[in-house]
Specification:
The complex is a heterodimer of chains A (about 800) and B (about 350). Chain A is built from 19 helices and 40 strands. Chain A is α+β, with helices and mostly antiparallel strands. The chains are: A alpha+beta (about 800), B alpha+beta (about 350).
């Protein structure tokens, strides 16, 4: 909300404060200043002057030649405005003056006549966007005085962030009230007016159908108005807080709203059928054409203002087009009311229409202020609009608001804040904020809450008032005396961090993707988990919650490949979401993607493509590092290239993950020509075992190399399993260090060289023992696989 | 002619090395003939005074290299007598230290992970436990129990994604507070990190981001204790000289509520673009737990008091690393991630 420094000055003397000081005070009170905009401070050498004489320019029809006096000297000024005439009090800019937007006034000849200055319009002083003519100032202004000073030209506009609980502060009055309490300065505007509240007025009939929805409705009649432009000072005020001045009716009601917080609405009285006002809920299929030219279909929960036959306004939100004030309006009915915040909020959201008015009604306006603001607005019509104001206000007030009394304990509040503020200090603060102490006993007090502070409901609300005004900086810094803080629990996040760090140590980079994506990408995977969709998505790209991390990782992979990365290894630890047996389900997945050139452009080794054995090796290393017992079992999965896809199972055959190279089909679907490997671990199924110590071997190992030639389609893994099964106790490890095919070996065959590490846990093995065992293994392999064996002695 | 004498020593040394490599000479003999008291190197050094001043450094270096290679060869032959490839490697082993080393391909954690880890470490070391909750939440936990009824104006601040299952995507980590308090009695001291979602996607907002919620409930927890914990956190995270400001604010689930600013990390408080000239940067929101929240979870609001706070992880990461656009976190460009 925009608040004008000058406007605040109407309510409270702030002449001794700088804009920065006010900004600091308001921020400290909980009204954060998000911006300070200084207006027109650059206007110089413009004075109040009088037009002594005015005649037609000899060489131009539309120009006038004026004799203007600043009290000391007289000037010949050429003026193009139609409204210039002798006797006017006007702002005069001297040659060399600085006017709006920093423009410097130069001496000019207009149609052959020197102009010794310029009579300014409000726009030329930066007071409004466009002016029709020159500014006509009140006659009582002192001639020769600096216009900038007299017109209060320099102003500062604060952008104030008013929190949703403080509807009372959505006006200059509201902000001034806070400053008044803080600075201990009285508000200097007396708002005790005299007016007649009546329940009946000739020709006007008001009916409230649901008093909960509209506890108070006032109306006043203003007759015989001429709708003109508003006075320039008022236009400036509105213009400065970001509104476009339109005409007196719109400007006056707006002014009052930003002045004291009460939204008002003016109806063209002559367009109201039978002079009747009914406040009721909409009927089914009812429609209204609003001031913004939008026709909306209403529901039974929308509150309307109606005349005898039709809706004339969407209560508290926006007026209707049919009864709107126009150029020909003579008589108006001015509405000032209080509507239920809940109902206004629902209707505003339902139809997506928000206005300055609904914004205030939603946050509670001051019910006691309803007729006061109406009076202030009527005064404007009287003063500037030549209207005849009926002194009577019809006030329908079926449920009279009773200001609540809220109790609190001084001690309790001090305890909760960690402060020690004396009861008299608290009382004096609360009194300055408008609270009235109505009872007190020992440590307790009861405060009557003013009607504008609907946010004060219980004792802690006073704690908030106290801490706002005494300042957070006065609260000491202490440490909680709670046994909880002696608690040290191991974090389950620690495990996830270890998973991430393991992936990092294998060269994978962590990415973070949105939890939602375009469902098409999930469909490309042939996912069979049932998707959950966002109902009010911002775009199709954010429509479905992901049932797999794969599509986004592929996108990330593609992005980086396209951005000149030669080896792309990425992982993400995130959630997938789907409809499970027990309802919406979330599961944590760690997934990775890798592809590109390994050792690209290295002087010490040739580059190669990232391939299946890289992927398998990294998956295995990962699982070993994370202490998982695991086995790979081949799977046919459309995502994976034939024969490269595996599930990872734990010792109980529970699936803990999967990996494989992308199938050609998948690459085509995602329009990618760079092959990649993919793995995923189901984080919840991984074992978070505490590590158990096993004594390192005490006896030396013996190694033997074996070379054999076998059918190239035979899986080497089977042979390794066989060897281990034969001598489970002493075969510690088998390293395969050479695999090749060649013409010499023969077609359909391949040579495998392995190094078997033998070790006993109980004793030092002798050469003889190991040779014997090795012999047994060789024979067995010969029998079972028909392999051609070549023994090589290891070290 | 002295040059020739030195050249002869070099030739002799190289022949000896070749012999050794071809296993035509044992390592003991090699050692004696090369490095021994009457070995080639010793002889060469003794003759160094016969070399002209200009050439001394050259021969000095040459024989140092020969000596180093010889020692290396001996070490190798002692270590692995079978592996000839290593030996042949060594044949060309002139070290050019200006060549790049064989760097390893190591990955990088995402800056959000790094930031969250630091935050967690600090709170865990202060005795806070870690709790988590689902991202698909119900209205009650995300709003009602947190003192935000259906048409509460504060809901406008958190535009919500709704799901076709009837759930919503949580708009903050605060519902985890509700779940935690529903599952146990005080005392509680916990932080609750997690992913949150708001229907907002523009230059300065992403529809998904991360928060760490904090909650402490016990008898006699005071606002000053909240200050104590947060001062400790901020000083440990940003440095102990950092200026801190508590500013009144409003959240439905706390009262009184505050936003906490730190002196701008970019300009040091003088005022710059990042802090919009104020010298302050907002880093978190906090307050005493609103009595209505305690009522919603069945805690006695007269007996227990507590505080809660919420920290935006992206915000902290942006400030700490000087990242000027929140969208970097989700673009997943390696050129970004590899900086961390």
């Amino acid at each position: 909300m925009k608040i004008s420094f000058n406007w605040l000055n109407d309510y409270i003397f702030l002449g001794d404060k700088s804009a920065e000081q006010i900004s600091e005070i308001l921020t400290a009170l909980g009204f954060e200043i998000e911006g300070i905009d200084k207006k027109r401070y650059e206007i110089k050498n413009v004075v109040i002057a009088k037009v002594l004489a005015c005649e037609k320019h000899p060489n131009a029809d539309k120009l006038s030649l004026c004799r203007v006096s600043d009290g000391k000297r007289e000037f010949n000024v050429v003026c193009g405005a139609a409204n210039v005439h002798s006797g006017l009090t006007v702002p005069l800019a001297y040659i060399g003056a600085t006017i709006a937007n920093g423009v410097k006034l130069k001496r000019v000849k207009i149609r052959g006549i020197n102009s010794e200055g310029m009579i300014c319009s409000a726009a030329e002083l930066g007071l409004e966007p466009i002016s029709a003519g020159i500014m006509e100032l009140p006659k009582n202004l002192e001639i020769g005085h600096d216009a900038s000073e007299i017109l209060n030209l320099p102003d500062t506009i604060f952008e104030v962030n008013v929190t949703p609980n403080r509807g009372d502060a959505l006006s200059h009055l509201g902000i001034a009230r806070e400053l008044s309490a803080f600075l201990k300065r009285e508000l200097n505007k007396n708002r005790d007016y005299h007016y007649d509240l009546v329940s009946q007025l000739d020709g006007i009939d008001i009916e409230i159908k649901d008093p909960d929805a509209c506890p108070r409705y006032t109306a006043r009649i203003i007759r015989n108005i001429e709708i003109n432009e508003s006075p320039s000072w008022l236009k400036t005020r509105l213009f400065d807080i970001g509104l476009n001045p339109l005409n007196e009716v719109v400007d006056f009601t707006n002014f009052v709203m930003f002045d004291s917080g009460q939204p008002l609405h003016a109806f063209d009285l002559d367009k109201l059928k039978d002079g009747k006002i009914v406040i009721r809920y909409a009927r089914v299929n009812e429609k209204i054409l609003l001031l913004n030219n939008q026709t909306i279909g209403l529901t039974g929960s929308d509150l309307l203002i109606c005349d005898a036959e039709k809706p004339i306004a969407l209560a508290g939100i926006m007026g209707g087009q049919e009864t709107a004030v126009s150029d020909t309006t003579k008589n108006i009915l001015l509405e000032s009311a209080f509507f239920s915040p809940h109902i206004i909020s629902c209707t505003s959201k339902r139809h997506g229409i928000m206005s300055d008015s609904s914004f205030r009604f939603e946050r509670f306006i001051d019910i006691n202020n309803v007729p006061v603001s109406s009076f202030e607005c009527a005064k404007f019509f009287e003063e500037y609009g030549n209207g005849i104001v009926d002194t009577k206000i019809i006030d329908k007030y079926p449920i009279r608001y009773k200001e609540p009394i809220v109790d609190f304990s001084y001690q309790n509040i001090n305890n909760r804040l960690g402060l020690n503020i004396s009861p008299p200090d608290v009382d004096s603060l609360l009194a300055s904020l408008g609270f009235e102490k109505v009872n007190s006993s020992a440590d307790k007090a009861g405060m009557r809450v003013p009607s504008f502070r609907r946010d004060i409901l219980e004792d802690m609300d006073f704690a908030e008032e106290i801490i706002r005004h005494f300042g957070f900086s006065n609260v000491p810094v202490t440490m909680p005396k709670s046994e909880m803080l002696h608690n040290r629990t191991a974090s389950k996040l620690q495990f996830r961090l270890e998973l991430k760090q393991t992936a990092v140590s294998l060269g994978f980079n962590e990415v973070v993707n949105y939890s939602f994506l375009n469902p098409d990408y999930l469909d490309l995977l042939g996912e069979n988990k049932e998707k959950i969709n966002i109902v009010n998505e911002l775009s199709m790209e954010q429509k479905s919650l992901r049932t797999s991390l794969m599509p986004q990782l592929i996108q990330n992979f593609k992005y980086n490949v396209n951005h000149d990365e030669v080896l792309v290894k990425l992982f993400e630890l995130g959630k997938i979401y789907f409809r499970g047996a027990g309802g919406p389900t979330e599961e944590k997945i760690l997934a990775g993607i890798a592809g590109g050139k390994v050792d690209y452009m290295k002087w010490f080794t040739p580059a190669r493509d990232y391939g299946f054995y890289d992927l398998k090796g990294e998956v295995s290393t990962f699982l070993k590092k994370m202490n998982q017992s695991f086995a790979f079992t081949p799977v046919s999965d459309l995502r994976f290239f034939d024969g490269s896809g595996f599930y990872i199972l734990d010792e109980r055959r529970t699936k803990i993950g999967a990996f494989g190279l992308a199938s050609i089909e998948l690459l085509q679907k995602f329009e990618l020509d760079m092959p990649f490997g993919y793995f995923e671990f189901f984080v919840e199924n991984l074992h978070q075992s505490t590590k158990k110590f096993a004594a390192p071997p005490r006896f030396p190992s013996l190694k033997r190399d074996i070379s054999l030639v076998i059918d190239k389609h035979r899986a080497i893994g089977d042979i390794l399993e066989k060897i281990k099964a034969l001598q489970p106790q002493i075969v510690e490890k088998i390293n395969i260090f050479d695999v090749y095919e060649s013409k010499e070996i023969g077609p359909g065959l391949r040579s495998i060289t392995m190094n078997i590490v033998y070790r006993s846990k109980k004793k030092t093995l002798t050469d003889k023992e190991v040779n014997r065992i090795n012999e047994i293994i060789l024979k067995k392999l010969q029998q079972e696989y028909g392999a051609k064996l070549r023994e090589r002695r290891g070290d | 002619m002295t040059g020739n004498k030195m050249e002869a020593f070099i030739r002799e040394a190289k022949e000896l090395i070749d012999k050794f490599k071809q296993k035509n000479i044992g390592s003991d003999d090699f050692k004696q003939q090369m490095l021994g008291r009457n070995g080639i190197i010793t002889k060469a050094m003794k003759n160094m005074n016969t070399v002209s001043k200009e050439k001394k450094p050259f021969y000095g270096r040459a024989f140092n290299e020969i000596k180093k290679d010889s020692i290396a060869l001996l070490a190798l032959s002692a270590g692995d007598k079978n592996d000839k490839s290593l030996l042949s490697d060594l044949q060309n082993s002139i070290i050019d230290a200006s060549l790049p080393g064989r760097e390893r391909n190591y990955g990088h954690l995402h800056p959000l992970t790094l930031t969250l880890n630091r935050i967690e470490e600090i709170f865990v070391s202060m005795g806070f436990e870690i709790a988590e909750g689902p991202e698909m939440e119900n209205e009650h936990n995300n709003f009602e129990a947190l003192n935000m009824s259906r048409n509460h104006p504060a809901r406008d601040m958190q535009d919500t994604f709704y799901l076709d299952t009837g759930e919503l995507l949580r708009t903050h980590t605060s519902p985890v507070q509700i779940r935690l308090m529903n599952s146990k009695k005080p005392p509680i001291a916990a932080i609750m990190p997690g992913t949150v979602f708001r229907r907002d996607d523009d230059v300065s907002h992403t529809p998904m981001f991360h928060q760490v919620e904090g909650l402490m409930v016990d008898e006699n927890i005071r606002f000053s204790d909240l200050k104590g914990i947060l001062y400790e956190f901020i000083h440990r995270y940003f440095g102990s000289t950092h200026k801190i400001r508590f500013r009144p604010s409003y959240f439905p689930f706390t009262e009184p509520s505050a936003e906490v600013d730190i002196g701008c990390v970019i300009c040091g408080g003088k005022g710059c673009n990042v802090c919009k000239g104020t010298g302050w940067l907002e880093i978190l929101g906090c307050g005493l737990v609103n009595k209505n929240v305690f009522r919603a979870v069945g805690y006695d609001p007269e007996k227990y008091t507590g505080f809660a706070f919420g920290i935006g992880i992206e915000r902290i990461a942006m400030l700490a690393y000087g990242i000027d656009n929140i969208h970097y976190f989700f673009e997943n460009d390696l050129k970004f991630i590899k900086q961390f």
